[in-house]
Amino acid sequence: MIAKTRDHSSGTFRNLITTQKAQKGDERGIAGNVRITSHNATPKLSLYLPALFVIVLACIPVLTKNPVFLQIMILIMWYAYLTCSWNIVGGFAGQLSFAHPAFAGLGAYVSTLLFMYCGLTPWLGMLVGGLFAVLIVITIGYPCFKLRGAYFAITSIALAEVLRIAVENTDELFGIKIGGPMGLLVPLRGHSPLYMQFTTKEHYYYVILAMMLFGLFVTHRITKSKMGYYLAAIRNDVDAALALGVNVTKYRLLAAAISAFLAALGGTFYAQFVLYIHPSGIMGQYLAFELVFIAIVGGRGTFIGPLLGAFTLVPLSELSRIYLGGGYSGVHLLVYGFLVMLVILFMPRGLSAPAENIYLALERRLRPAWALERGDTDAAAKR
Amino acid sequence: MPLLSVKGLTKRFGGLLAVNRLDLSIEAGEILGLIGPNGAGKTTVFNVINGFYPADEGEIEFEGTSISRLKPDAICKKGIARAFQIVKPFGDMTVLDNTIVGALARTGDLKKAAREALDVLDSVGLWDKKDVLARSLTIADRKRLELARALATKPKLLLLDEVMAGLNPKEVEETVALVRKIRESGVTIFLIEHVMQAVMNLSERIVVLHHGSKIMEGRPQEVANDERVIKAYLGEEYTFARSS
Amino acid sequence: MSVAMKESIFNGLLMGGVYGFMALGLTLIFGIVKVINFAHGSFIMVGMFTGYWFWVLTHIDPYLSLLIIVPLLFLLGYQVQNVLIKPVLKSEAEVREPIGILVLTAGLWLFLDNLALLLFGPNFRTAETPYTGQMFKAGDVLISAPKLYAFLISLATTGILYILLKKTLLGKAIRATGQNRQVASLMGVDIYKIYNISFGLGVALTGVTGALLVPFYPVYPNVGFVFDIRAFMIVVLGGLGSIPGALLGGLIVGLIESVGAQFMATSWTAGLIFVIFLLVLYLRPEGMFGFKEEW
Fold first, then answer.
1. Is C97 on the interface with B (CB under 8 A)?
2. In chain B, which residue's Cα lies nearest the Cα of C91?
3. Which domains does chain C possess?
4. How many CB pairs under 8 A join A and C?
5. Residue partners of A41: CB distance under 8 A and separation at least 6
């Protein structure tokens, strides 16, 4: 409780305040993200709801084996995962990046090449791919961090395109076959969990579910940490952040490194799932736009945004792909583009805003009930 | 040993000499005022001290060690905080979160930072608005927030750049009292101010800057009666008319 | 110097002029409205499709389609600014690094491209105009006629734009807004109206480029992407918001592309442009020539 902690604090100005203090004692203290609330005793919706969500997702493959449905679910979660990684730079640090397909592509190519030529399992190869992505961020990405707004966005496009064009034009590098525009076929190993290859969709489903939860966990941890505050400060005003002791370059670099690492892992999963990679697919600009749009529709810079966005937009694209197919791939982006414009105009915080309202309403409604259960009549009486 | 000493500080922008071989020093615990007509180079002095611009010449020492080559964030960690003339709130964060960012300069513990931030908000009179988004604050409150964030970094030296500008007389009075309280709590204060009543009232010493050079330094009374200062502020004609 | 080299330099300059002109709309919009229009390439595509259908349906001289395209795309741009961008511009006025507009125009980009995909299908279309494939012979060098015409019309239109901006009252209001929106607004300029007009002008210029490409460039729904990225590069190379910068940047990119093609696969020349772009950004973020925004 705030009142208590404040009395014990050794704040420099504690003794300066004479007025206003008494009536603040019982005030509920929500320090933004830091909740120092007096409701710790009641069970928290913020614990039950995610648990329920995970259980439902985990049960789906048990209930249905429909491959089309599982395929769509896997892609939804893959997009949610990649958008999570994008969100760290694009959402929290506020830099509009179109470079993430390059990181995902790097992960896919590195792990696949290691698999093909060294027999290294993609489980480890993906980590190597992630490190490569971090290396790219540190060497090439570093000078970009001082760029503002549109400059950063355009530069990230240029970066991703350089990498894509380089891969597209390289059939062989130091005797290693990269495949140029044709891409690479991942060698088949049948059902072999050791090499991240499965013959049924459920296994892929659980792998990507775990990855998505990991992505959400990482972003959640960031929002609840010093880094989260610092990134928000940097996003709002670089100069003010500097003056308050924020090492802007360090935190931007850190955010970009984490983000690129996660994106690269996503690339490896894609390679192992589709078993075929080519530069205009995994490294193409459409993927960059999809990630940005999913994040915007879901709520940029919010922990839950990537999830909401992916569950809303990806089914649209998959259905249009199934029903229109062929040369019309991309038509779903018509809807994406339209929705993004609507969201920017009328709902700048994306779907996360209504979701948050529903959540708070639920919390309000449930709290007295729980309180009663625990015999805590006081809290219930307040309702 | 002075808390901050500036020796021979020179800053040019292209052909413009913004600050010209400025010497000044601040003793721990004092309130030093920096005044001068518009364009005298006052804010540039602050920008150089807290590391936004590198100095072209000269040396800045804080607690006996040079800070001339440090970046703003490192300077903040050393104990110099700054309230900007043009306020820079983190618009999409709450007042409390804004202040927590400042407090995090001294601790990695969010709960501790939050408690310290709340203390500071209480002292500047922003407690009631702690959950309000910074972008929806009034100008007076934005100035307070600017102050609160700087205080939250627990500075030894506080640079205040026109924190009274745009406030009404009552708010100016409150801020003057607040600055006094901050000083009493042990923070040294270096302030740029155009509101003369406030700066004369608060400062123990005043440095007058004109075209980037120091033309006068002294106690408020001496400064107010100095011919050169009046000339700098009001122009040659005025002094001429007055003396004839 | 070999004939092939001479030809590639010549064609590079012609194409570069068109590129520079193509980037003009982007730089104009940035200079005045301070918005990077990601949908720039889509407006080129719209211009191309309009020109294409005009030719296919009427078989009147393709350059006459400009008479339709200029007012049509002006109106389109005017309304895009008025309806879509203005509200976001207003709500983000206090944000230091607004990216809402970037995302909005990116959304518009994909919307327009895929609308064209839905309407016209993914196929490449070539308009067999009287100019298509026509060549001039200057000494031993062959010059593509439609490229030369495109270059000349670009030059003329740039001249008209220059006169409009420098000599007319509207042009003065536009430049004033670009220099300082607050002051312009205090002087009685309705800045949002100026934004609408500037955006309309920028998009109309872009549409002209599209129409000029029709006789020698295939038309397809995401043709804009090629030009979009290239226009960004050109504009940043020349300094965002600078008109001479855009024109010079265009010439340089055109030359690199066509001369570079003599030494390497064409797909690599695109990569080369990006690499040069990145180098320039690292070394001289204000653009290659250090042109200030001279509005």
1. no
2. B135
3. 3-283 (1.10.3470)
4. 135
5. A374, A376
Query: How do the domains of chain B map onto residue ranges?
Result: 1-79+156-244, 86-154
Q: Which residues of B touch C95 (CB under 8 A)?
A: 91
Give dist(CA A40, CA B201) in Å, integer.
49
Of the candidates A36, A224, A244, the beta carbon closest to that of B149 is on: A244
What do you get for the CA distance between the two ends of chain A, in Å? 20
What is the complex's ipTM, to 2 decimals?
0.90
Please, which residues have CB within 8 angstroms of residue A22's CB and are 6 or more apart in sequence?
A: none
Widest distance between CA atoms in chain C = 60
> For the residues of C227-246, what is the DSSP string, one character each?
HHHHHHHHHHHH-TT-HHHH
The answer, as to whether pTM is greater than 0.80, is yes
Superfamily the domain B1-79+156-244 falls into? P-loop containing nucleotide triphosphate hydrolases (3.40.50.300)
C178's CB contacts (< 8 A; 6+ apart) are C31, C32, C198, C241, C293, C295
Interface membership of A158 toward C (CB under 8 Å): yes
* Residue type present at position A25: G
Give the model confidence (pLDDT) of B6-28 as tens digits: 999 999 887 888 898 999 999 99
Q: How far apart are CA C250 and CA C16, in angstroms?
A: 5
Q: Are A362 and A45 spatial neighbours (Cβ–Cβ below 8 Å)?
A: yes
Interface test with B, best of A5, A8, A10, A12 (most B CBs within 10 A): A12
* H or E, element range at A57: helix A45-63
- The pLDDT tens digits for C152-171 are 888 888 888 888 888 888 88
Asked whether C274 and C59 are in contact (CB, 8 A), the reply is no
| A5 shares contact with chain B (CB less than 8 Å) | yes
